[in-house]
């Protein structure tokens, strides 16, 4: 049972079968080429579901785990020294942690870098691919056993969440549960070997989030992720934000996460948040973007021009 945070403040206990975890570990090992000579960095807290990969996958291949000492998990310099001193070959970390390590001078041409747990900005992905032997971007909720999709990163190429892992089914559906055409946003539904039993002691929530799979074997279910994605013609998927971060402005339905994703594609923007400033009426409502520079934020007009090239006018902050 892995507990995740809930919007009401009440944690949700996700019941994951052993076969789902076994499928994840074997599939990830195949994708990244894991073996007995590897050395994995044990960076992530046990309370975070992704820790199961960096702690248990090495046990299935006979590899070693180098544990990060307490208090050093957020120290980029200490992590880089630990990686270098122990000849670590595989590191799994969130983009926030990768940013710390790259800023501290990480440069390991023999390292396999796994990024997940947060959206991966394009500039950060390019830094990773330039500093490591291989880099992958992974995506998945706890309810489908940690990782469900994987993308191999290439310098300069758009960042996607890739394609489903082995024994995983992914559908991009509209509000009626019908498939949407390529390039259009829809809610990602995940099925297959990784789907959890449900939430411990919460049958109502389980019924809402785990729904019948009309395209799978009899009795199979899909997990409604609440994430918006776009499927590309080659089967890869682009992350487009959360369903619950949609707002409506002057008749336009706007996904705030999509605007934020475009902003962090700028080389001098490390973080971005977009909010709807309601004002006193719909005519006065506007989109407002807040950015953190890396190291110094670009001018507002430069960011508006960037967004105007890729988004409709209604989605460009004032």
Give an account of the 3D structure:
With 318 residues, the chain is an alpha+beta fold. It has helices spanning 18-32, 51-61, 76-85, 95-103, 122-131, 203-209, 256-263, 300-310, and strands at 2-4, 12-15, 39-42, 64-67, 90-93, 108-115, 132-139, 149-152, 163-164, 168-173, 185-192, 198-199, 210-212, 221-231, 237-242, 246-249, 252-255, 269-277, 286-293. The protein has a five-stranded mixed β-sheet with strand order 5-6-7-8-9. Strands 10, 11, 13, 14 and 15 form a five-stranded antiparallel β-sheet that branches. The protein has a three-stranded antiparallel β-sheet with strand order 1-2-12. Helix 1 (18-32) crosses helix 2 (51-61), helix 3 (76-85) packs across helix 4 (95-103) and helix 4 (95-103) packs across helix 5. The longest helix is centred in the first third of the chain and has 15 residues, at 18-32.
């Amino acid at each position: 049972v892995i507990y995740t945070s809930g919007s009401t403040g009440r944690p949700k206990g996700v019941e994951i079968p052993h076969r789902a975890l076994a499928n994840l570990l074997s599939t990830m090992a195949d994708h990244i080429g894991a073996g007995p000579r590897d050395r994995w960095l044990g960076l992530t807290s046990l309370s975070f579901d992704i820790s199961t990969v960096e702690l248990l996958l090495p046990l299935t291949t006979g590899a070693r785990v180098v544990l990060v000492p307490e208090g050093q998990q957020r120290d980029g310099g200490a992590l880089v020294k630990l990686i270098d001193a122990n000849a670590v070959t595989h590191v799994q970390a969130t983009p926030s942690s990768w940013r710390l390590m790259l800023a501290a001078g990480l440069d390991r041409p023999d390292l396999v870098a796994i990024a997940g747990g947060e959206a991966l900005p394009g500039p950060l992905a390019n830094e990773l691919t330039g500093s490591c032997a291989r880099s992958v971007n992974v995506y998945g909720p706890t309810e489908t056993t940690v990782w469900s999709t994987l993308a191999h990163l290439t310098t300069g190429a758009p960042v996607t969440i890739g394609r489903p892992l082995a024994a995983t089914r992914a559908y991009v559906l509209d509000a009626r549960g019908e498939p949407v055409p390529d390039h259009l946003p829809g809610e990602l539904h995940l099925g297959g070997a990784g789907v959890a039993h449900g939430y411990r002691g919460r049958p109502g929530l389980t019924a809402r989030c785990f729904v019948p799979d009309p395209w799978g074997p009899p009795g199979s279910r899909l997990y409604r992720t609440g994430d918006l994605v776009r499927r590309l013609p080659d089967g890869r998927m682009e992350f487009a934000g959360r369903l619950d971060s949609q707002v409506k402005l002057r008749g336009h339905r706007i996904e705030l996460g999509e605007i934020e994703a475009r902003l962090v594609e700028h080389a001098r923007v490390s973080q971005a948040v977009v909010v709807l400033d309601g004002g006193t009426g719909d005519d006065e409502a506007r989109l407002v973007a807040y950015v953190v520079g890396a190291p110094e934020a670009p001018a507002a007009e430069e960011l508006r021009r960037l967004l105007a090239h890729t988004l409709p006018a209604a989605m460009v902050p004032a």
